[in-house]
Design goal:
Elements (H helix, E strand, L loop, with lengths): L7 E7 L21 H12 L5 E13 L1 H9 L2 H8 L7 E2 H8 L3 H10 L3 E4 L2 E4 L7 H12 L5 H9 L3 E13 L16 H6 L26 H15 L3 E2 L6 E3 H4 L31 H12 L14 H5 L1 E3 L4 H12 L7 E10 L11 E12 L3 H14 L5 E8 L2 E11 L4 E11 L1 H4 L8 E9 L1 H8 L14 H6 L9
Main location: cytoplasm
GO molecular function: ATP binding; metal ion binding; phenylalanine-tRNA ligase activity; tRNA binding
Subcellular location: Cytoplasm
């Protein structure tokens, strides 16, 4: 085709149902018909940045006969065949005879011929009811075949229902020359390169235009780690239940707040360097509330508040030692001490979810650090029943329904209870938390009214997270072996699986 010939060219394509194939007369260099998408792609590419052509899309519809429709257009409708097979006169034809003549289509033809009042019955025979007929179905189908249309939409609907014709969409492109029209496609440069600048080639280069409408690659933003997702869910539960978040933003504590304030004796095995990470530099803290420290020393040594104490020689040097906090209960003790100093007591509910450290042998389920979920409620007249009831509500909100409580021991709580839940997947009772009522030996030296009871509990954040996300090795959750795509692709956490 020469340049002059390409004034306006209409390229027509039919949809997949089309009997003419995908495109009409548009062939590629291998003489194969080009499919519609390829054609559109080529037009877009030639028009958009190259501006070689311009095109407009014209949509139209065409009616095409089915095989059966074509057959009728050629040879007449089934009803016309029935009419023609019946000889004129009173005799007519016996039905079984007609069936022999026309075969399978007799029934449809007969029905339609009755409907058209072309035939009637005379005993067992069918006879003509009119002298001559006009086979309108055939005429309609011939019209559709030659024009692709029919003026009466009712006829089209009826013939479509009878599966004699079907509607197709035709998409045509009206193509004209664009400002950069040419019969050869010049390769366009996408980027300006250092070589192009050096050689001066950039001056002649034909640059591809920017496509400001192109969708960018979605940026990979940050993703919350599964632990942080579960933490967020738990925070919402706490907030919903009226809790305040404790400030847990320092990992280093003194032994005093981590152990002594909690009535944990200085010879307790947890205070050994095998269980706790102590700091070397600085190794100690000397900032303590003096009077309170004295009362703590006294309760450890000689007791008080109805207790006989531990009866050992309490040393300040031990309390001064700095460590990486072994539990967030260190923060709870500090918060309760501050609560005791307030002029007026108001019941409080505190929680925190943060990191703690223990000098433990690392294995598939333990690391030297983990996150603790801690809760504290202080009010007058609280009982163990309140603690159990609270646990049931709290864990219930996490989807944990079956709880059992087992007596346990903590130096700072009495009574103490371990919380167990039945794990469907594991088929056994698993420990999910530790809890208790803080001892008077811990609360009263702080200056809290002896009528104030404090119920408290702690659980690991890792355990529910691992169960929830089906992770059985903690190293897949934390540390250098973590697969980043696991973090990206994990869904938000809704507590239903624990
Ligand atoms: N501090 C306990 C632990 O680390 C948890 C706990 C908190 C128990 C408060 C009782 C009361 O396991």
């Amino acid at each position: 085709m020469t340049t002059e010939e390409l004034q306006t060219l209409v390229l027509t394509t039919l949809d997949a149902k089309g009997s003419i194939g995908n495109t009409k007369g548009i062939k590629d260099s291998d003489d194969k018909e080009v499919d519609q998408l390829a054609l559109l792609g080529a037009l877009k590419s030639l028009s958009l940045d190259k501006e070689m052509v311009r095109y407009e899309t014209i949509e139209d519809e065409i009616w095409v006969l089915t095989d059966e429709g074509n057959e009728i257009a050629n040879k007449g409708s089934h009803e016309a065949k029935v009419f023609e097979a019946i000889p004129a006169g009173e005799e007519g034809i016996v039905i079984s005879e007609l069936q022999k003549l026309l075969g399978d289509t007799t029934k449809i033809g007969q029905g339609q011929a009755f409907k058209n009042k072309w035939i009637t019955k005379n005993g067992n025979n069918l006879i003509r009811a009119v002298d001559s007929i006009v086979d309108q179905t055939r005429i309609d189908l011939e019209t559709i075949r030659s024009t692709g249309k029919h003026l009466n939409p009712k006829v089209l609907a009826e013939l479509k229902k009878r599966k004699l014709c079907d509607k197709h969409k035709i998409i045509s492109y009206s193509v004209t020359k664009g400002p950069q029209f040419s019969l050869t496609i010049e390769k366009q440069a996408r980027d300006i390169t250092a070589e192009m600048l050096q050689s001066g080639e950039w001056k002649q280069a034909n640059f591809k235009k920017y496509n400001f409408d192109a969708l960018g690659i979605p940026p990979t933003g940050g993703h919350l780690h599964p632990l942080m997702k579960v933490r967020e869910e738990l925070r919402q539960i706490f907030f919903e239940m009226g809790f305040e978040e404790m400030p847990t933003n320092k990992y280093v504590e003194s032994s005093f707040w981590n152990f002594d304030a909690l009535f944990q004796p200085q010879q307790h095995p947890a205070r050994d360097a095998h269980d706790t990470f102590f700091l070397k530099d600085p190794a100690i803290s000397t900032q303590f509330p003096t009077e309170y420290l004295e009362r703590v020393k006294e309760v450890h040594t000689n007791g008080g508040y109805g207790s006989i104490g531990y009866g050992y020689n309490w040393k300040i040097e031990e309390a001064q030692k700095l460590l990486l906090r072994t539990h967030t209960t260190a923060v709870s003790s500090f918060m309760l001490y501050n609560l005791a100093r307030k002029k007026e007591f108001k019941p409080v509910k505190y929680f925190s979810i943060d990191r703690v450290f223990r000098n433990e042998t690392v294995d598939a389920t333990h690391l030297a650090e983990f996150n603790q979920v801690e809760g504290v409620i202080a009010d007058k007249g609280l009982t163990l029943g309140d603690l159990i009831g609270f646990m049931e509500t709290f864990f219930g909100k996490m989807g944990v329904k079956n709880l059992r409580f087992k007596p346990a021991y903590n130096p700072y709580t009495e009574p103490s209870m371990e919380i167990f839940s039945y794990h469907q997947g594991l088929g056994k009772w698993v420990e999910i938390g530790n809890s208790g009522m803080f001892r008077p030996e811990m609360l009263e030296p702080m200056g809290l009214d002896p009528e104030i009871r404090v119920i408290a509990w702690g659980l690991s954040l890792e355990r529910p997270t691992m169960i929830k996300y089906g992770i059985d090795n903690i190293r897949e959750l934390l540390g250098h072996k973590v697969n980043l795509s696991m973090i990206e692709s994990n869904p938000i956490c809704a507590f239903d699986l624990i």
